[in-house]
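Supplementary Note 3. Input sequence used for the single-chain structure prediction.
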Amino acid sequence: MLVGLILTAVATLMTLTIKNAAQARYREAATKLAQEGMEFFNREDAVLVWSNFAGYFPVGSNTYCLATLPGAGQLQAINTGSCSASETIQENGGEYIRQATVTKTAAAATQINVVIIVSWVDGARTSTVNITKYFQKLVN
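The predicted structure, written as discrete structure tokens, is reproduced below.
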């Protein structure tokens, strides 16, 4: 009876360890995807003049699907709206959805808020990683 109890405890511990390792692997992949998404916006801010960068985004809070990232200077190529079920990214054994929420408060805004959200299903729950950055017009 004692041997059975010990084996059950060991099996439970191993299961938790494997689950925790998988969760860490998925979170690491999601963080990498979020960083890549933010790097796209950093690059576009650097490549385009502010009026073109800020001018692309309408006033309000808008969502963009970042299943694929366009080349430099191709801001207009990002997909508007939330990602569909088929717009996923396969990474490190997981399936992820990467989106950006861009908030612009006025037509002549000098600041834009970008939030990259990467989500994945982990068992019965959805997990997310978010990265936020405020882009500002440089004053000469």
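Residues 2-47 form the longest helix (46 residues). Residues 2-136 form one domain.
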